[in-house]
Design brief:
With 671 residues, the protein is mainly beta. It is built from one helix and 52 strands. Strands 3-46-51-50-49-1-2-52 form an eight-stranded mixed β-sheet. Strands 4, 7, 8, 39, 42, 43 and 45 form a seven-stranded antiparallel β-sheet that branches. The radius of gyration is 38 Å and the shape is elongated.
Length: 671
């Protein structure tokens, strides 16, 4: 039976590791040391911007580019989730801020979006608008108004069709088709021509009224149905008459051909490179391809392929730019809108829609289908579209075709925006009875919210410093307010009660000045920047960078304990005793503990650490024959401090190392 050291200190023991006691032998050259260190190993943080590389200074979250788009709720994402290299330039939510990529050669900044104002209120409420390369066309009552810029409200030209118009389709070459409320279609191929009726629903068909039109690949596509049953949908192709040099479509006698029939509603149609893609209320996306040219006659379309959206999805709006197809869908209850991206794949020349990827869902959306005058607009490398995020709010969104980032461009709580165009370097759209355009002033406020930031740690973090870098400050009312929140729900609402103001930057002297904080500790932190401009909208603050730094609150305690591995055994007030083989036994036992999860208790100075035996170090400067007098071995223990050891406390029931194996009860001490 091995005796239990009832008085470890008096018996010469200074530390226990697990159930074994050892003699501590510190010296000026090899002292007993306690200190703490970051719980994580030293690292070079290569996840994102070099601005975030803060080795030995905790972690940093820094953003000077946000073109990856919205929708990132946690950063970094949890293990097992789909990770994206674009997470370093993404955020959670924004509104009324310009987040788009800058023109080549210009630095990236964030500022308020241009304000909008009523450009024109016609006598009759406008219903739709379209644009070519150099003209914009607005329909109002029976008139088609043509504009060469949005500097003057007086139209360059006005054509009176004589019947109420409900939709317009414009080609890049200024060919224009309009649809009237009787189901007839009118067309002109050039600006100098008069409009000619090219489809007469009463004379050209058997009770087929045109309900929507598109001008794609130089031809008119019309969706018609049986006016008596409002069913039995028909897709008509109205082929153009090509004359002149260069060849130009004219308002001559057109012919129409039935291309497809269906028992559902045709919602939209878009020119998608080699094919025309149409969306239908039965959930299908169908492709149509022009047949080979035949003796100079414009080739007719033929049905090539069909795919069906997943589940309850019904496509209702399409956009196309730079080889990417955008598909907006509604579920069958029309309460959730979703955006997908896709490609038109050449499958043996059938050009089928494939590679569908869900981008975003708008729950409880106020969208309805069909919406023939609520269109997507393509720019050089973006696609813009309006979404009724709920019944009261119609907001403009942008999709970046380069970064695949999506973000809300502007909030607008008025009625739905129709007939949107980008023309004359401005965004124009119809709201209610007005034609609205962006203007030279700015919106007065906007915000951006980051994801909840954890640095990938499951431990409290001391958030120590925050910084904003900005430009164009100085005018009265121009400022950037910087907020933080430790409530993960705060990111859902910019007005959430969890947001705490860090500081407000209103002068260039305040830009780049780090705001240090104390006692800001939480497992997660989200940031929000609010850009505020003057009430007259004449200027905007410019955000160039914002950042935050934090250090994990949990830091490991390190104990470096020199343990005697000499054959000589010492105890206070006793003569030394030499036990041959004792040093070997202690040495081997300590080596066996390397990597073990256990408890270290040191009596003087007192400390108890739960953790692991990190490593065993035998000082090279004292290397000698094992077991020789005066040799020590350093045990490096790493873990969490849980209390201070004391005699008669945690030491109870712990025996001296290897004593029974040597045939001596307490190695002659206190016997």
């Amino acid at each position: 039976m091995v005796a239990i050291p009832t008085r470890p200190r008096a018996q010469g023991y200074g530390a226990s590791i697990g159930d074994d006691w050892f003699r501590v032998s510190p010296s000026p050259e090899i002292p007993l040391r306690y200190y703490n260190r970051d719980s994580l190993a030293e690292r070079q943080d290569g996840r994102g911007s070099p601005e975030e590389n803060v080795l030995d200074l905790g972690y940093a979250f820094s953003r000077s580019n946000l073109t990856g788009g919205e929708g990132l709720d946690w950063y970094p994402r949890q293990t097992g989730e789909i990770r994206s290299e674009l997470d370093q330039i993404r955020f959670w939510d924004s509104a009324d801020l310009e987040i788009s990529r800058p023109d080549a050669g210009r630095p990236y900044t964030v500022q308020l979006v241009p304000a909008t104002a009523t450009f024109l209120t016609p006598a009759t409420a406008p219903l739709d608008m379209g644009a070519s390369r150099d003209r914009a066309y607005l329909i109002s009552g029976t008139n088609v108004l043509r504009y060469n810029n949005f500097d003057d409200t007086t139209a360059e030209d006005t054509d009176n069709i004589g019947t109420t118009l409900i939709q317009v389709a414009v080609g890049a070459d200024n060919s224009v088709a309009v649809l009237d409320n009787t189901g007839d279609i009118w067309f002109k191929g050039t600006q100098t021509e008069n409009y000619l009726r090219v489809y007469n629903s009463a004379a050209d068909s058997v009770m087929l009224n045109a309900l929507a039109i598109w001008l794609v690949k130089g031809r008119i596509i019309a969706y018609c149905n049986d006016s008596t049953t409002a069913s039995d949908g028909v897709m008509l192709e109205i082929a153009p008459v090509i004359t002149g040099t260069p060849a130009t479509p004219t308002a001559g006698t057109h012919t129409y051909t039935v291309i497809d029939t269906f028992n559902c509603v045709m919602n939209d149609c878009v020119d998608a490179g080699h094919a025309i893609i149409a969306a239908f209320s039965d959930g299908s996306l169908r492709s149509y391809v022009p047949e080979s040219d035949n003796a100079g006659v414009a080739p007719l379309l033929s049905v090539r392929a069909r795919v069906t959206m997943p589940g309850r999805e019904r496509p209702y709006s399409l956009g196309w730019n730079l080889g990417k197809l955008l598909v907006l869908t509604l579920d069958t209850d029309q309460d959730h809108a979703r955006l997908y991206t896709a490609e038109v794949l050449d499958v043996r020349f059938d050009y089928v829609v494939g590679g569908l990827q869900l981008v975003r869902t708008w729950e409880n959306s106020g969208e309805t289908a069909p919406a023939y005058t609520k269109n997507m607009v393509a720019t050089r490398d973006e696609v813009l579209f309006w979404i009724a995020e709920d019944i009261a709010e119609n907001n403009l969104w942008r999709y970046d075709l380069v970064t695949q980032g999506l973000f809300r461009d502007r909030k607008d709580e008025r009625s739905a925006a129709l007939g949107s165009v980008i023309f004359d370097d401005v965004l124009a759209f119809i709201q209610g009875a007005n034609l609205v355009t962006t203007v030279a002033t700015f919106k007065t406020s906007g915000y951006l919210i980051t994801p909840n930031i954890t640095f990938g740690l499951n431990t409290p973090i001391n958030w120590t410093a925050f910084v904003i870098e900005a430009a164009e400050l100085g005018p009265a009312g121009v400022e950037i307010a910087f907020y933080r929140s430790s409530d993960p729900e705060s990111i859902l609402d910019p007005n959430h009660g969890g947001w705490v103001l860090i500081n407000t930057v209103s002068d260039l002297a305040q830009s780049g000045v780090e705001q240090t904080k104390i006692n800001v500790t939480s497992n997660t932190q989200a940031l929000m920047v609010k850009l505020n401009g003057p009430s007259n909208g004449l200027s905007t603050p410019v955000l160039t960078r914002f950042a935050m730094r934090g250090m994990p609150k949990h830091r490991d305690w390190i104990a470096e304990v020199p343990i005697s591995i000499s054959d000589m055994v010492y105890a206070p007030g006793r003569m030394p005793l030499r036990i041959p083989g004792w040093g070997d036994q202690v040495h081997n036992t300590l080596l066996a503990k390397e990597g073990a999860s256990t408890v270290l208790t040191v009596l003087d100075p007192p400390i108890t650490i739960r953790g692991i035996v990190d490593k065993i170090i035998e000082p090279t400067e004292t290397v000698g024959t094992r077991g020789s007098q005066g040799r020590v071995l350093v045990v490096v223990f790493r873990g969490t401090r849980v209390g201070v050891g004391s005699e008669g406390g945690s030491e109870q029931g712990i025996t001296g190392l290897g004593i029974g194996q040597l045939g001596v009860a307490t190695i002659g001490i206190d016997t």
